[in-house]
Amino acid sequence: MYTAKLIDHFNNPRNTGIIPDADSIGTIGDPECGDYIRIYIKVRAYRLQEVTFEVCGCPAAIATTSILTEIATGKSLIEAMVIDEMDVVKALGGLPDPKIHCSNLGTAALRQAIIGYLQSQKTE
Ligand code: FES
């Protein structure tokens, strides 16, 4: 059973789409063969100024990534790195156990985007 909040985020996902001049992008999955999430970030002063996403996945994947963008926006990179799937599940008011793994995808893609950003800063 999905919560009303999850259904809202599924029906009206927030922060969707690409950021054309993103500072970094994190991708989890493969668009050719299944679940796939791409997270775009804009960073200012080591803080997430903007977080958007594209997803090909189940309703839980869409809703969990949508609320993840809301949780992460405005956070420092360090704060955002430690957002985990249970933070996402809690923010949605719960998620059926078989769907918990769906909430891993967005958090993993976000971490990948942040790591990519930090690595790009190191090489500049
Ligand atoms: Fe694969 Fe939800 S993302 S079942």
Description:
It is a single chain. The protein is built from 5 helices and 3 strands. The chain has one domain: Sufe protein. Chain: A, CATH 3.90.1010. The protein has helices at 4-11, 59-72, 77-81, 85-91, 102-123; strands spanning 24-29, 36-44, 47-56. The radius of gyration is 14 Å and the shape is globular. The protein is an alpha+beta fold. Helix 4 (85-91) packs across helix 5 (102-123). Strands 1-2-3 form a 3-stranded antiparallel sheet. The structure holds FE2/S2 (inorganic) cluster. FE2/S2 (inorganic) cluster (FES) binds next to helix 2 and helix 5.
Distinctive features:
124 residues, alpha+beta, Sufe protein. Chain: A, 3-stranded antiparallel β-sheet, 5 helices, 3 strands, binds FE2/S2 (inorganic) cluster
Summarize the structure.
This protein has helices at 4-11, 59-72, 77-81, 85-91, 102-123; strands spanning 24-29, 36-44, 47-56.
The CATH architecture: Alpha-Beta Complex
Q: What general outline do the C-alpha atoms trace? A: globular
The low-confidence parts are: none
String of helices and strands: HEEEHHHH
Q: What are the SSEs and their pairings?
A:
Layout: H1 4-11, E1 24-29, E2 36-44, E3 47-56, H2 59-72, H3 77-81, H4 85-91, H5 102-123
Antiparallel strand pairs: 1-2, 2-3
Helix pairs in contact: 1-2, 2-5, 4-5
The protein binds FE2/S2 (inorganic) cluster.
Residues 35, 57-58, 60-61, 102, 105 line the site of FE2/S2 (inorganic) cluster.
